[in-house]
Amino acid sequence: MLKLALFDCDGTLVDSQHAIVAAMAAGFQAVGLTPPPSLATRRVVGLPLVDAVARLAPDGSDASLHQTIAEAYKQAFYRNRLAGTHPEPLFDGLLEALDRLEAAGFLLGIATGKSRRGLDATLTHHNLAHRFVTLQTSDRVNGKPHPDMVYEALAESGADAAGTVVIGDTTFDIMMARNARVASVGVAWGYHDLSELRAAGADRLVDDYAQVPDALADILANKVPQ
Question: Is 51 a catalytic residue?
């Protein structure tokens, strides 16, 4: 059985909250609106960009406004990346965890609300692109919590659903996994509380990256076929 560890990116692999909050503020300012509070922006990280904007926009605003804000967000994010004003550092322990997972026979993949261009830039910056056999982004297929990114990752990697675990920091990640009928691990260092991840149905919760490989091994050792 081919095993797949399918990671979220923002809030799970990299701490991108400052970059996202700054770009979202710029997007709202571009259309003359007051930016949403930073906490509100962090709450929607992981959703497809237009969906995230729609949750933050004033009641009654329409889809064309959401799209305009989203485009301004993308431009601001790109400018900030070029300027290096808001770095997206890796979370502590990530590289060691990836090494252990690969040594245990896991393929590695990503399913993220980032665009493919944004994900490629992040992975290139950290020299990580070669580590992942499948990269799924919400500008290519339906975003979280829809299961499409999991299905595409399974098809592209050849992994089995029974051997696949989603690792993420938001309820959107856990719901995507549940909708795809694969296991999930919720992480403590991201943008939603562990209590929310537990309530959403995470199979395991972890406090740091050192616990991730053992959590995946334990899930698969005890997984009941569905």
Answer: no
